[in-house]
Amino acid sequence: MAASLFLSQSPIAISTPRSSPSISLLSSPQTLKFRSSHSNFLFNLSIAVSHAPSRLATIIPRATASPSSTAFHGLCYVVGDNIDTDQIIPAEYLTLVPSNPSEYEKLGSYALIGLPSSYSTRYVESEEMKTKYSIIIAGDNFGCGSSREHAPVALGASGAVAVVAESYARIFFRNSVATGEIYPLESETRICEECKTGDVVTIELAESRLINHTTGKEYKLKPIGDAGPVIEAGGIFAYARKTGMISS
Amino acid sequence: MAASTAAALTSTAFLTNKKDLDVAAFSSSLPFSYRRCERTVSKKICSVMTPQQSERKPSASGSVKTAMTMTEKIFAKASQKTELSPGENVWVDVDVLMTHDVCGPGSIGIFKKEFGENAKVWDREKVVIIPDHYIFTSDERANRNVDILRDFSKEQNIKYFYDIKDLSDFRVNPDYKGVCHVALAQEGHCRPGEVLLGTDSHTCTAGAFGQFASGIGNTDAGFILGTGKSLLKVPPTLRFVMDGEMPDYLLAKDLILQIIGEISVSGATYKAMEFIGTTIESLTMEERMTLCNMVVEAGGKNGVIPPDSTTFKYLEDKTTKPFEPVYSDANARFLSEYRFDVSKLEPVVAKPHSPDNRALARECKDVKIDRVYVGSCTGGKTEDFLALAKVFHAAGKKVKVPTFIVPATQKVWMDLYSIPVPGAGGKTCSQIFEEAGCDTPASPGCAACLGGPRDTYARMNEAQVCVSTTNRNFPGRMGHKEGQIYLASPYTAAASALTGYVTDPREFLQ
């Protein structure tokens, strides 16, 4: 039923959730992102919805939906190799505490602000809180450097749902899964040289496939494996509660 | 410079297990059990327990069934297993959890959210909280974050909280230490054979003591605060054999920059890096810390050095807690082995904007610089400043560019004013720095190594060229996005300060 909820602008997100998430959320005029803030949730619906015509709407079914029902559709933002955490979220913004909701939102507005000026398009426009680009495409060793969890949090808070990189730095990958903020997906080939910022792409999680609609090319991704359900649940705590590992 | 050779030795199987967080361990066939907490303090989360094991002591050394590396042995001990192989996921008991003002508040936030407002940390003596990043700033949020640490430490009765209240003069805060990784060592929190996790990627520094030490995020830290456990994958080990007499113009910083240049910034991703050899044996503890500090710059999960008499001597007056050193078995399996003849190496730098962008210092002699920065967990220890002073004293000249001195900790700061520099006629570092025209040593902390708030001491607020003894030269790392950072040893930093160009220290040391 959620499929009919996306009307407006393209690009939109596609999904066929098997659960029945509370769709009233979509009527909110705000950009929302719900996380596992309560321990007794049954599912965790993560939504980055926007109302402005230029923005995208993305819905990701979490919890009961299996990866097979999940697809992300949106504009991509393309970066190169070794994008370190100082570029993802420069240290001057680390005074923002991710577990504080208003500061979480602010972190999102600074996502990738540390990229050098050679990147002529900003990931999040100044004065904006959210990005237009829900999918980041990168080269090798994405997220290298510091252990700051602010990095995947900033990307998730900005509205990113997935990064597709050739490889990741260890701590960034782990933090992405532990927080459930973004899907750190790996490509089998060097996609970052064949996609351009602004291309319209779809990621089909179950098929481990990325489709670039702008160029018409398709790429194989490495399966997300067992990390998928953890991210879907909204992170390691949410997953542990959902599966009964820890009591709610 | 063909001084290094790499030989892939064993095990292709290790390569396939790539992800550190193999959440398969979470699925139905759980290798652990969890039970309802009996305590009333935390209702939300039940402790995660490893299954009952028969009483068998893990083999430490000597006659063993399965040969293991040091790192594998530490994992085995911490997970109550007798043997382990790379790729296995195990719940390890954490001996020390360290956090600081940048990631502490977020970790505390997660702990409270998930375990309840009234939850207690698993062990108030195993949590070490060290404010060090953004201390001497008027940034209100930064100051608030230190307040959060203080309130939490008080509420939880945390035994080791190194507080600072009066920001106007760090010296009136006897508890304040400074840079966490150096403070951890100086305060006796680094012990062979243990597991130390910290919310900072340079937590790997403590591998110098023969322990497993690695950086984690807030969520993992929040979990550990409540349970004392972490799910970790056993990494395969890369072994670095450093042999030969270390030339007197080289420092450990040159060795690690050499290695990172060799294997790249992702060459050790998910892997342990073990350092052995006659050169390593000759290194002081602080130099070993420099080496292990930067393994994360190669993507390494941890760095580790076998404890020896140097280690035990350092620990003598620092800890009374018993510890059990472990060593790699003779037939342990290493993913690859790299050999270096250190006597043939030359001083190196990492050029902008990557720690693996290695070049010989002498190859960069035409690079004009605007400033020199000496500080951080990598290059702000007492011996780093002694090395700096040694070059300044040998040269007897003044610096040509602004030279910033940031002691890592309060103890280092005191050393600058009290320890005579060897061969300098009784002069201290501070006297030599003053004569050379350096900036007065600043308040101890992380300062401009990672930029920080705008008013951070020595932050690079303009697009300048800096030679720095720190660990990262990413774009924007020290403040300005277009700033250029050359990572170097304290010797090379000193020589460069004296000429105003990137300079090989042999110009002053021979």
TrEMBL record, chain A:
GO molecular-function terms, A-Z: 3-isopropylmalate dehydratase activity
Compartments, record wording: Plastid, Chloroplast stroma
GO cellular component: chloroplast stroma
Superkingdom, taxonomy of origin: Eukaryota
Entry keywords, A to Z: Amino-acid biosynthesis, Lyase
Pathway membership, UniProt: Amino-acid biosynthesis; L-leucine biosynthesis; L-leucine from 3-methyl-2-oxobutanoate: step 2/4
GO BP term (any one): L-leucine biosynthetic process
First-listed, main subcellular location of the protein, grouped into a coarse class: plastid
Keyword Membrane among record annotations: no
Catalytic activity, reaction form: (2R,3S)-3-isopropylmalate = (2S)-2-isopropylmalate
Enzyme Commission number(s): 4.2.1.33
Aconitase A/isopropylmalate dehydratase small subunit swivel domain span: 133-181
Similarity comment: family membership: Belongs to the LeuD family. LeuD type 2 subfamily.
Subunit and interaction comment: Heterodimer of the large LEUC/IIL1 subunit and the small LEUD (SSU1, SSU2 or SSU3) subunits.
Name of the protein in question: 3-isopropylmalate dehydratase
Organism in which the protein naturally occurs: Cucumis sativus
Automatic annotation (TrEMBL), chain B:
Domain called Aconitase/3-isopropylmalate dehydratase large subunit alpha/beta/alpha: residue spans: 73-359, 362-500
CDD domains named among the record's database cross-references: IPMI
UniProtKB keywords: 4Fe-4S, Iron, Iron-sulfur, Lyase, Metal-binding
Domain of life according to the entry: Eukaryota
Annotated SUPFAM superfamilies: Aconitase iron-sulfur domain
Pfam families: Aconitase
InterPro entries the record matches: Acnase/IPM_dHydase_lsu_aba_1/3, Acoase/IPM_deHydtase_lsu_aba, Aconitase_4Fe-4S_dom, Homoacnase/IPMdehydase_lsu, IPM_dehydratase_rel_enz, IPMI_cat
GO molecular function: 3-isopropylmalate dehydratase activity; 4 iron, 4 sulfur cluster binding; metal ion binding
One annotated GO biological process: L-leucine biosynthetic process
Protein name: Aconitase/3-isopropylmalate dehydratase large subunit alpha/beta/alpha domain-containing protein
Organism of derivation: Cucumis sativus (Cucumber)
